[in-house]
Structure formats: structure tokens, C-alpha cells
Fold this sequence. Notes:
Blueprint lengths: L3 H25 L2 H4 L3 H50 L5 H26 L6 H15 L6 H28 L5 H20 L5 H25 L12 H9 L9
Helix pairs in contact: 1-7, 1-8, 3-4, 3-6, 3-7, 3-8, 3-9, 4-5, 4-9, 5-6, 7-8
Amino acid sequence: xxxxxxxxxxxxxxxxxxxxxxxxxxxxxxxxxxxxxxxxxxxxxxxxxxxxxxxxxxxxxxxxxxxxxxxxxxxxxxxxxxxxxxxxxxxxxxxxxxxxxxxxxxxxxxxxxxxxxxxxxxxxxxxxxxxxxxxxxxxxxxxxxxxxxxxxxxxxxxxxxxxxxxxxxxxxxxxxxxxxxxxxxxxxxxxxxxxxxxxxxxxxxxxxxxxxxxxxxxxxxxxxxxxxxxxxxxxxxxxxxxxxxxxxxxxxxxxxxx
Length: 258
């Protein structure tokens, strides 16, 4: 969970550290001496680079998959909110109006309170109150015929789905890569960059460019993993677009009289 300035600062720090180490190594251990060990160093770079590339690729895939799941879950929660209102149209008119008003309130809370709170790894207490009230109204509906009973069954089913998606979203707020995996990523980056600096090159400028590009690539990969590691925080995050659309659609769903 990084903002744009933090991401840029981390990438610059990784590049500066890599170039600084290369310059220091060039003074302490001249390139002419390192070239005598290029065969061993080259083998080491190939093995370490390939291994680290696989690790980074797997981590990127893992965090991106989690991000997509969080995005899909948020959209499903918004769709369930709309379905609750539509399914309740077979209930008494007063119950329909209460459910619709609470659904509109819930959508507003998601956009205006819940999402800003989730950026700080919190949730809005008001949204919990709204969904409790939805359950109370639905379970308190007075049923007088089979049509209303069918509508109530569908309403409770959609309300159950809404609650499930909500609980899942709350769990996803704090989901992140374990510290041990971050240790592997950071240690792998250091080892890979150091190994690339140890290679003896006849042209220092070319070696400089190669280390620069490697450090840039690794820095960007680590920043990407860190930024989408928490799906509801940072500059790249799941947005409440599903609830924004639901908020626009809900007023157009009119209660049905029987």
C-alpha cells in the first residue's frame, strides 16, 4: 500500500543503492580482476536471476489474483444490494419502501464512509447498523399469501449473499503477503543485484547501464507487488464503482402495489 511518491522514492533508492555499490566495488575490486572469475560469476547470475524471476512472477500473480478477487467481490456485493430491493417487490408496500430506503442508505455509506475508512484498514460502524436494519425489516415482514412468501425467500437469499460478500470484503481489507515472503523478495533482490555488479566488464559504462536497468526492473516489480498487495489501500485499489452505479439505479426501482 504505497502512494505514488513512496513508489518513486523506493525505485530511486534501489537504483541509487545498486549504482553506488557498483561504483564502490569497481574501486575496491577492479574490473580486470573480476573478469578472471566471469565464468563462475556468470553461472551464478544465470541461476540466481532465473530463480528470482520465478519468485517475483509468482508473487505478482498471487497479489494480482487477490486484487481481482477483491474487485469481483465488491461488485458482487453491490449487485446483491440491488437484488435485495428487486426481490422484495412481492412484499407489502411499506416493507418494500423500508428496504429500498435502507438499501440507498447502505450504498451511500459504502461510497462516502466505508471506502474512505478502508483506506485506513477500518470499516464504518454505520454500515453495520444499516445491514442489521435490513435483516430486521425483512424478517419482520408480514406475509399473507404465497407470492409474498416467495418474494421473502428470495429477499432473504439475496440478503444472505450480501452479508457474505460484506464479511469477505472485511477479511480482504487486511489480507497481505506474509513477512517471510517479503524477506525472500528483498533478499533475492539484493543477492541478484550484487551478483550482477560482481561481473567483470571491459566497458564500465555498459556495465553501469545493465545494472541500472536491472535495478529499475526489480524496483518496479517490488513496488507493483507492494502497491496491489492490499486491495483497498494505496494508489492502486479497488474502487466503489459498483456501489456508485447501485446508488444511481436504486431510486428508479419503484415499489410494486398488489
